[in-house]
């Protein structure tokens, strides 16, 4: 408001005593200056209100025109839907996810036969920059589960956790080829 009504508002810094802590605290003293407005026919309060409203409307209209000049470049874009569609339609992103998942299981030297869904998703997010949100990675994993269920296996344990494991018996190249062929058939 000080920017909109520079002469109509005075702001003074002050120091006051806090009664609970008995310490000095900074405070602001804000004063409305009614003398900036001519108020012959009406009260000073009403004249000041009309003056501040007109300044506020002028400020809003001025900045509205600036937004129109900027065009659509600063409008919110639905990134989630755009990125999901790009990943769904891009078979190479699924192949990349297969490579990432394989490297994750290789890095733990496949000593742990399976890992929780949360662990897998966190490691995917750390190793693959294609995903902005965990939900995107989850959806891609679901596609992998349906497309290559004999490579990426999902199992729900008694504690309620979802566990994933990768079967070594399958050749990774055959998994990639099957994935590419099934995705291109779906288009």
Automatic annotation (TrEMBL):
GO biological process: DNA replication preinitiation complex assembly; regulation of DNA-templated DNA replication initiation
The UniProt record lists the keyword Cell cycle: yes
InterPro entries linked: Cdt1, Cdt1_C, Cdt1_C_WH_dom_sf
One of the record's GO molecular function terms: DNA binding
Source species, domain of life: Eukaryota
Stretches assigned to the DNA replication factor Cdt1 C-terminal domain: 92-152
GO cellular component, one term: nucleus
Key words of the record: Cell cycle
Family according to the record: Belongs to the Cdt1 family.
Name of the molecule in the record: Putative DNA replication factor Cdt1
């Amino acid at each position: 408001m000080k920017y909109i009504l520079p002469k109509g508002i005075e702001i003074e810094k002050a120091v006051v005593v806090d009664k609970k802590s008995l310490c000095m605290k900074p405070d602001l003293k804000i004063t409305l200056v009614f003398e900036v407005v001519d108020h012959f026919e009406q009260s000073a309060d009403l004249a000041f209100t009309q003056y501040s409203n007109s300044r506020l409307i002028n400020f809003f209209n001025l900045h509205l025109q600036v937004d129109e000049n900027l065009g659509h470049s600063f409008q919110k874009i639905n990134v989630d839907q755009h990125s999901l569609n790009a990943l769904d339609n891009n078979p190479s992103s699924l192949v990349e996810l297969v490579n990432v998942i394989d490297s994750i299981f290789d890095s733990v030297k496949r000593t742990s036969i399976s890992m929780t869904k949360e662990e897998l998703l966190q490691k995917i997010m750390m190793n693959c920059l294609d995903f902005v949100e965990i939900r995107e990675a989850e959806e891609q994993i679901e596609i992998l589960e349906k497309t290559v269920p004999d490579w990426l296996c999902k199992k729900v344990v008694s504690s309620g956790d979802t566990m994933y494991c990768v079967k070594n018996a399958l050749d990774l190249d055959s998994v990639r080829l099957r994935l590419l062929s099934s995705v291109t058939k779906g288009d």
